[in-house]
């Protein structure tokens, strides 16, 4: 069972600091807290990141030259199509390298969810049976079980085979409490 979510279905919110916009793709909650949230951000200016206590983040630049994430532990390079992970509690200030960017964000509870993101180059791949598999289409030509996935859309679920095009492949696997 899977669905194809197009940008017209994303929930759009401007940032309080005026530095960008978030397009929420999907989220899962449990006991009144996020398990995970997927979104695309349009970052128009340098500035601080929102804090997400108890959460972890994976950010992948999907458009633009990238940015430097200044943290108390030193800078992190957010280069195009190279996922970078960090704690949602970390104080981060983003510095754009050469104009605005767009990025895909996976925010998740690391005590309850294991998450991974990687660049996918169109090879046939079957979704995981466990957890949630997603693909953010970076190009046309992506197909899920023969259905066309438009550029900028997200395939989300399980029980599908992906072929063609390019995208960011992600997997979210809920962990058993210890």
UniProtKB/TrEMBL annotation:
Any matching Pfam family: HutD
UniProt name for this protein: HutD family protein
Origin: domain of life: Bacteria
CDD domains per the UniProt record, alphabetical: cupin_HutD_N
The species this protein was found in: Neogemmobacter tilapiae
InterPro entries: RmlC-like_jellyroll, RmlC_Cupin_sf, Uncharacterised_HutD/Ves
